[in-house]
Amino acid sequence: MEHTMSDDKGLKVSGAPNLAELHASPCYQLPAEDRRALAAVIECIEGIPCNPCETACPQHAIIVGDEITNLPIVDLDKCNGCGICVAACPGLAIYLKKHTFKEGLAYIAFPYEYVPLPVEGQTIKMVDRLGQVVCDGTVLRVVKIKKNDRTAVVHATYPNGYYEQVVNMQRLATD
Amino acid sequence: MEEREVVVIGAGPAGLSAALEAARSGAHVLLVDENSKPGGQLFKQIHKFFGSRDHRAGVRGIDIGTQLLEEADALRIEVWLDAEVCGIFNQRDVWIVRNKEKSVNVRAQRIIIATGAVENSVNFPGWSLPGVMGAGAAQTMINLHRVLPGYKVLMVGSGNVGVIVSYQLLQAGADVKAIVEAAPRLGGYGVHTAKVRRAGVPFHTSHTVLEARGTDHVESATIVQIDDKWQPIPGTEKVLDVDTICIAAGLTPLVELAFAAGCEPLYSPLLGGMVPWHDASMCTSIPSIYIAGDISGVEEASTAMEEGRMAGLSAAHSLGYVAEHDYEVGFKAAEQRMLALRSGLFGQKRRDAKAAIMAQTRG
Known about the structure:
The complex is a heterodimer of chains A (175) and B (363).
Chain A: H1 11-14, H2 19-24, E1 39-42, H3 52-56, E2 62-63, E3 73-74, H4 84-88, E4 94-102, E5 105-112, E6 123-127, E7 133-143, E8 152-159, E9 168-169
Antiparallel strand pairs in A: 1-4, 2-3, 4-5, 5-8, 6-7, 6-9, 7-8
Chain B: E1 2-9, H1 13-24, E2 29-32, H2 61-74, E3 78-80, E4 83-89, E5 93-98, E6 102-113, E7 117-119, E8 132-134, H3 135-143, E9 152-156, H4 160-171, E10 175-181, H5 190-197, E11 203-205, E12 207-213, E13 220-225, E14 238-240, E15 244-247, E16 251-253, H6 256-260, E17 265-268, E18 273-276, E19 289-291, H7 301-318, H8 324-341, H9 344-359
Parallel strand pairs in B: 1-2, 1-6, 2-3, 6-19, 8-15, 9-10, 9-15, 10-11
Antiparallel strand pairs in B: 4-5, 5-6, 7-16, 12-13, 13-14, 17-18
């Protein structure tokens, strides 16, 4: 699908942050293309009173601090991409990313709270922040551990030409 | 006449927290609620709450409700359900109708009113058609009664209620066709708007609903752009194919009981309109009556729980149950937790509005 910028007016008009807003926020750090491990990417740029990402992280790699309205900052040196924060975030604003999982393929692990859930091996439509389909992806696995409290985390690959654009998948049709 | 030390009216997040705190302090508490189940709105909040660990953040509202009820059970708090409070007399006599058949008067040394708030409506041609409902009503239908109110929804209002209910309607299997917001900027937390936007739901700022059409239920909705004087701009109408229109246009505190009892009112537009004056301890102009939660100004479940704890602790303290030092420490901790929730971009205005209420002197 053709990617249009016309509706990309930013968080408080379009509902989703645009890249300019994200790049201006210290919270948003896209892992470098040569990074080997998965890393948490946080899109929480408003300073809302919330810190479960910080308390959930076993590596103490996410810092909010005493003022819980501070922006969460990931220490990429400490983050090992375990993904606990992805389901812990009440705002569903965290995903894991890696630029090169295999030749030409990026890796993403994102929160997903709809039924039906996708299954391993399934081809899914990857979407950008505005909900537009940008490419196909392939599901590697779907994590549904008890600790995640009914938030599934979907691991998938997609063409890494769309590395930064893709944030989630299109909802699957219900029967 | 029956007698109780503390009567708490309303078993939602504020009332439950107030009852727990007062009972933990040693007071004998009666908790009454007009519904057949306690918990207020908590049991339809299927999303994970914001805040910090002290505010039970990361836990779904429905599970917080269960936790609070278990705590109330462990403390053997007396709970009357299907119990409507019809009035408060002589500043301490609570008139309760139980199970719609038995009238009971309970003399309370302290009363904590936690009646919550009611959804605002928006009037437009067709607004009385079946299919037009409060966003909270739709949320009750999908999350408590497991009934989908419709398949194609227009949400009116982009505050947190509007966007959270939109997300939950998607989860329930409905299609949210659009969210309209009269203001030029969206109201809710960006993480909530981003969640529904990436699910494909378009937002229309500076738009409102003009009319609903249909014979015996909603069959379409017309939305229109509005100018900076909030007037519809002719020629910008769009017809949306929807069968449900949800109104998320804010809430108004349920203050009738408090005002009929004689609590002094004041006006706080930011917090939902008329609210009873109260001090930092949540005490109203009547020393035996406290308030907590949305009745004292519309905020969120997490702030309601903190206010409940403050009111419960203060009421117990005023009855001599809490040592002065313990009260100071406990109250300060609650204040700090509250401050954390009322900080930042979104909290500052509410914090200022609360401070304005408390700055007003009585009489």
